[in-house]
Amino acid sequence: xxxxxxxxxxxxxxxxxxxVLWDVSxxxxxxxxxxxxxxxxxxYTTVGTFLKILEAKGYVEHHRKDVTGRTFYYSPMxxxxxxxxxxxxxxxxxxxxxxxxRFCSFLIQNEDLSNxxxxxxxxxxxx
Length: 127
Fold this sequence. Notes:
This protein is mainly alpha-helical. It is 58% helix and 8% strand.
């Protein structure tokens, strides 16, 4: 995946499919992805549609296990961490004028952090 490519944002439903693929850490068929959902599970065709959209957006790729196989196996083309970094960088840039200080300040001021959380944050900053 091109590191400079701006990725299209994921919808909530697309994110659910990606979370299944990231959590399992191996290529899965549509049936295997559906099986990872809690009840009520989405329809096979629904998940298949989301996979086609994710592939068009450049988030997943498919392959066959063998040349004669008819079943597609889907795997993510980027890690959860890379996607998270991309999304947070976009938020920092668009909402906080690319200022990490303003971004962190906003999070700290708008979260209900315990003293333990604050101490851990201070420790991270100091190191």
